[in-house]
Specification:
It is found in: Mitochondrion outer membrane. Its main location: mitochondrion. Pathway: Lipid metabolism; fatty acid beta-oxidation. This is Carnitine O-palmitoyltransferase 1, muscle isoform. GO terms for molecular function: carnitine O-palmitoyltransferase activity. By secondary structure, this protein is an alpha+beta fold. The chain has an eight-stranded mixed sheet, with helices on both faces. A six-stranded mixed sheet has the order 16-22-21-19-17-18. Strands 1-2 form a two-stranded antiparallel ribbon. Strand 1 and strand 2 form a beta hairpin. Helix 4 packs across helix 5, helix 5 runs antiparallel to helix 6 and helix 19 packs across helix 21. The relative contact order is 0.11.
Length: 773
């Protein structure tokens, strides 16, 4: 209990002679330094909020305006056209208010007004410029003069070094599409998937909705778009994520993987030390807004609001809806190892612990021989099962006493760390099995060794490999991807390791050891834990996962075909799915809408009439390779158009979703919306972004390519496919499905994907012949 005594700043004893005070100078010093650190953070946040609030204006810009205005007065040239003297006349006279002082103050007020007007004008102009999306629809490599002038103007108005949130106020709002446009695009997206009778019924429902309910619902939606920052995001977060009552493990959470080939150190504690320190360096940059905003083509800023909740965030279970707890700061980490929970302080003397000190703390946990307390080992299964039992158990058994203190420690931690007992990672000798096991471990683990409610759980394995499991409601995968790229690059290329595999530097052995969390879990609560574990275990065992490398070619060869790599892969997925199931289905591809304020995602319905025509041509022995190639180009062109429409706010599904939410609020029954929102996505796909922050060159460091990440199947009889285009010569696929479905087989679908990729590439190599179906 040495750490408990060190945490006490003073002690006192009542004796017959009086009260004896004993002050702990070291504890008081720690309190003082922590207070200084806290106030520094507050000052930095205040300074950044001011600088962000007036961006693209700067204090030096204000000073230049003031000096120029003051100089003009001394030269007897009134650039204010009499406004300065007008202001001066309205200032009080007498006392210290001499003529000179009043003139100086009126000059300051006038200069500030001019400067603020300039800032507002620049912001408004930039917002109008960022509302222009014509550049996205221009042919690749043929940029118009209009777009070049537009890009140059945006760069000038964006400033030279914007902070992370500097351009947030200049981002345009997500526009509400016209109902008739959305209906038309929807009907076009399902025409080739329905027979004539079913399509006729759907078209009737759609046209009736367009004429009857839609105008009223649209008015409310437009009103919301005027009032709110984004007419979709808050409802999307609440109704798609937080109101879900089923398990979030597998169904909602997703994962990211370590380097595919490289393992910087085989020492588990050392890798955890460097990784945690790298993540905290990222958090510090985030707090100070030192990260540059992500820019499309280096010109168009992406919305950064999702990054605010990366750290210090937990999903809190509720009976009818969950909520998100986000703290401005957290100074500790929650750690799980062999069924035991620990609290690790991240600061000492007001300073962030270094990697070697963190390694020491984690090694102390690994060396701890103590056993789990009753009910402690599988406690986290509550976060993996259904939400209502977890909400009830939390209120009943964790509302007071040591359980409340321990749970607060986890929920208020910066993030969650699991020091896993297993060894995972890519093994060339067991390629398929090793990556499959790695993926399943990160997706669900043992169902009780990840805290699925935390914004993310960092998992470090016995052999030094690592990954993370992320909760989905607070942000989308590109946000975790940005963090992950920074962490991996900082770990390997900036912090590094010494020759023995340990973190750099010398540890401070005087650090108080990690604190075991104490629990008092009654038998009734353990029964709830067991029930949640049974639900989660059944769900995890049903996941059929296949993660594999496609090494025949990568982005380089696809670009030589003058085709978008994403369109190439999406069409290959359509071909693979048709060969796998002999049918087409609604296909979900996630695209982002972060060019708009608080934008998240939109759906690209990538199973198009053009892609199905191409797939059928590949199955038709009488269609020539040149005809197949032409149909492929048409399908790729259509896919790129749909992707651009989705990114620019002209998608289908988010608009229909919001119209449905409005209809529920108003008590309006719409058979059309009910039908649309009940349609299953039997093929759900997503591309993992790569090199969002270029901290190292993949060409010179090919062993440090990322494995990407993945997610569980969306439909019980469907597939979930994630892919990362990692460099010029590698694409990694993550395929999920359910073992309980007789229609799916992840390995079989993986083989079909590989063959489809090769067959499409062969059309460009040898257009005179067609590959075997």
């Amino acid at each position: 209990m040495a750490e408990a005594h060190q945490a006490v700043a003073f002690q006192f004893t009542v004796t017959p002679e009086g009260v004896d005070f004993r002050l702990s100078r070291e504890a008081l010093k720690q309190i003082y330094l922590s207070g200084i650190s806290s106030w520094k953070k507050r000052f930095i946040r205040l300074k950044n909020s001011i600088l962000t609030g007036v961006y693209p204006g700067t204090p030096s810009g204000w000073l230049a305006v003031f000096i120029a205005t003051l100089g003009s007065l001394y030269l007897r040239k009134d650039v204010s056209l009499g406004l300065i003297f007008c202001i001066r006349e309205r200032l009080p006279t007498g006392g210290c208010w001499s003529l000179r002082n009043r003139t100086l103050l009126s000059t300051i007020l006038f200069s500030s007004g001019v400067w603020i007007s300039g800032v507002l004008l620049c912001r408004k102009t930039l917002k109008l410029l960022l509302s222009y999306h014509g550049w996205m629809f221009e042919p690749h490599g043929r940029t118009s003069s209009t777009t070049k002038i537009w890009a140059a103007t945006v760069k000038v108005l964006s400033g030279r070094q914007p902070m992370l949130y500097s351009l947030q106020a200049s981002l345009p709002k997500l526009p509400v599409p016209k109902v008739e446009d959305t209906i038309q695009r929807y009907l076009e997206s399902v025409h080739h998937l329905l027979d004539a009778e079913r399509y006729s019924q759907m078209e009737t429902l759609a046209r009736d909705f367009q004429k009857q309910e839609a105008p009223r619902l649209q008015k409310y939606l437009i009103l919301k778009s005027w009032w709110a920052s984004n007419y979709v995001s808050d409802w999307w977060e609440e109704y798609i994520y937080l109101r879900g009552r089923g398990p979030i493990m597998v169904n909602s959470n997703y994962y990211v993987m370590d380097f595919l080939y490289a393992t910087p150190t085989p020492l588990q504690a050392a890798r955890a030390g460097n990784a945690v320190h790298s993540l905290l360096l990222y958090r510090r940059k985030l707090d100070r807004e030192e990260l540059a905003p992500v820019m499309a083509l280096g010109v168009v800023p992406m919305c950064s609001y999702q990054m605010e909740r990366i750290f210090n965030t937990t999903r809190i279970p509720g009976k009818e809806a969950d909520s998100l707890l986000h703290l401005l700061d957290s100074r500790h980490l929650a750690v799980y190892h062999k069924g035991r929970f620990y609290k690790v302080w991240l600061y000492q003397a007001g300073k962030l612990l270094g990697p070697r000190d963190l390694e020491l703390q984690f090694q102390r946990i690994l060396d701890d021989p103590s056993l789990p307390q009753p009910g402690e080992k599988e406690l986290a299964a509550l976060t993996a099962g259904d939400r209502p039992p977890w909400a009830e158990a939390r209120a009943k058994y964790f509302g007071q006493g040591k359980n409340r203190v321990a749970l607060d420690c986890i929920e208020r931690a910066a993030f969650f760390l699991t020091l896993d007992e297993e060894a995972c990672g890519y093994d060339p000798e067991e390629e398929e099995q090793s990556l499959d096991s790695f993926a399943k471990s990160l997706l669900h683990g043992r169902c009780y060794d990840r805290w699925f409610d935390k914004s993310f759980t960092l998992v470090v394995y016995r052999n030094g490999k690592l990954g993370a499991n992320a909760e989905h409601s607070w942000a989308d995968a590109p946000i975790i991807g940005h963090l992950w790229e920074f962490m991996l690059a900082t770990d390997q290329f900036q912090l590094g390791y010494c020759g023995s595999g340990h973190c750099q530097g010398e540890p401070n052995t005087a650090l108080p050891p990690p604190q075991r969390l104490q629990w008092d879990i009654p038998v009734e609560c353990r029964l709830v834990i067991d029930a949640s574990y049974s639900v989660a275990k059944a769900l995890a065992d049903d996941v059929d996962f296949h993660c594999f490398r496609f090494v025949d070619f990568g982005k380089g060869r696809i670009k030589k075909c003058r085709t978008s790599p994403d369109a190439f892969i999406q069409i290959a997925l359509q071909l693979a799915h048709f060969r796998d199931k002999a049918c087409f289905c609604l296909t979900y591809e996630a695209s982002m809408t972060r060019m708009f304020r608080e934008g998240r995602t939109e759906t690209v319905r990538s199973c198009t009439r053009e892609s199905t025509a191409f797939v059928r041509s590949m199955a038709d022995p009488y269609t020539s390779p040149s005809e197949c190639l032409q149909l492929f180009r048409e399908a790729a062109k259509k896919h790129q158009l749909l992707y651009r429409l989705a990114m620019t706010g002209a998608g289908i599904d988010r608009h229909l979703f919001c119209l449905y939410v409005v209809s529920r609020y108003l008590g309006v029954d719409s058979p059309f919306l009910a039908q649309v929102l009940s349609e299953p996505w039997r093929l759900s796909t997503s591309q993992t972004p790569q090199q969002q922050i270029k901290m190292f060159d993949l060409e010179t460091n090919p062993d440090h390519v990322s494995s990407g990440g993945g997610f569980g199947p969306v439909a019980n009889d469907g597939y979930g496919v994630s892919y990362i285009i990692a460099g010029e010569h590698l694409i990694t696929f993550h395929v999920s499905s359910k073992r309980s479905s007789p229609e799916t087989d992840s390995k079989r679908f993986g083989r079909n994907i590989c063959q489809a990729m090769l067959d499409i590439a062969a059309l460009f190599d040898t257009p005179s012949r067609k590959m075997a179906n």
